[in-house]
Every structure is written in C-alpha cells, then in structure tokens.
Amino acid sequence: MGFGKSKSRFCRRDEPTRCALKRMGRHAAGEDPVKRRQIVEGAREVFMNVGFDAASMNDITRAAGVSKGTIYVYFENKGELFQTIILEAKQLIFEDLRATLNAEGPAEDILKRFSARLATGMTCEETVKAMRIAIGVAERFPELVRSFFGGHPENLVDTVSNFVAARIETGELQAENPRLAAVQLLELSTGHLWKQRLFGLMDAPPSEAEISEMAENAVTLFLSRYSART
C-alpha cells in the first residue's frame, strides 16, 4: 500500500456529525490533536531507535501509550506514520529558512544566515537519522524520499529561486537561471557537512564555528558568480 493516501477508512465521517461533536466539546475520531501528537511522538521514538523495517505497530503502541486500534483511527500504516514524521521535520526546517529569506537586509547577510541555518538543520541528529531510514527504504517506498526532496510548492529549491529572482529585480544579483543558482547555493551550503554526517564520517553535528565557516565560504563563492556588483 502506498503512502499517498492521507485518510484511512476509519476517518470518514459525515459533516453534521463532525460539527455536532465539536459543539459538544469532543473530537471526532481521528481529530484529537493531542492524541495524534502522542502517537507521532511514540512512533518517532521507535523509528529513531530501531529504524523503519524493525519497527512494529506493537512497538509504537507501547511507546505512544495507546491501543493499536487508536493508531489506525489516525494513520493507515506505519509508512504513513513515518511520512508524517519526515514532513514535520521538513516543515520545521523549511519554515525557519523561508522566514530567514523573507527578512529585510542585504542579500549577502541574508544568504549567510540562511546557509548557516540550513546546514544546522540538515546535520542535526534527527534529520540525519530520518534520512538514513528513508534512503534505506527508498527503492520500495520512493514517496518517502520525495516527501522531503519533492518538487512541490514547498520545495526549498523553489523558495531560494524566488529569492534569487527577487534580488535580481533589486539589482543585487544576476543570473540567467535563478533555479540553477539556487541549487548551487544549496549544495555549497550543505553538501560536504551533510554527506559527512549522513554516511557516518562525522559522529556528531558540526560545531557552530564549522557551520559559520562553511556558510561564509559558500556565500562568498556564490556571490563571486552571481553578485551583480562583482
């Protein structure tokens, strides 16, 4: 069963019933945010400790402190649970990065902050563990990897491309292909450190000094090609 489905058969309710339950101060099945969070946090603990294949729904029920039937009210299978965790991790990282790019100030200063925050998010322990798990099942469940790197409106390449295009309009940057420029900035900012972490060549997240140095050099190289003032 694929991971594209967002609702299980247990979540279907007619709208009048849903509204009536909310008026009574109760949540319809599958709509209690506290219970849902409890399940997600339990699943996160299990996945991060034993990986995707070794994780069982029984393990998740014990970690979450709920019944298996309750889990199936909210999630169709453990694949959907893991995809939820992947997307939440992505959202946390990307929301901060989008806010960084939307700040006021010179392009160089913004890009240095962006580069440092990107490297920090991509090399933290939870992101690295999640990506290792996703890569391990990528051939069987490619949508898990696409959930993080997919080409939809929240894709980070599009966000950086829009920033580059906007700064071309202000005369700070120049690029015939803003999307290519965006890809190159992302690779400069994360490629080395993230790969070192991903493949176990760096046991702990890089220090703040290492990330700062990488960000400085990444943006300097980027601007040597794309600054309109060069």
Automatic annotation (TrEMBL):
Q: Which Pfam families match?
A: TetR_C_7, TetR_N
Domain of life, per UniProt, equals: Bacteria
Describe the location of the HTH tetR-type domain by residue ranges: 33-93
Keywords on record: DNA-binding, Transcription, Transcription regulation
Task: Indicate yes or no for the key word Transcription.
Answer: yes
User: Per its record, what are the GO molecular function terms?
Assistant: DNA-binding transcription factor activity; transcription cis-regulatory region binding
Instruction: Write down the InterPro entries for this protein, in alphabetical order.
Output: DNA-bd_HTH_TetR-type_CS, Homeodomain-like_sf, HTH-type_TetR-like_transc_reg, HTH_TetR, TetR_C_Proteobacteria
The entry's DNA-binding region feature spans: 56-75
**What PROSITE patterns does this protein's entry cite?**
HTH_TETR_1 (PS01081), HTH_TETR_2 (PS50977)
Give TM segment ranges: none
Q: What is this protein called?
A: TetR/AcrR family transcriptional regulator
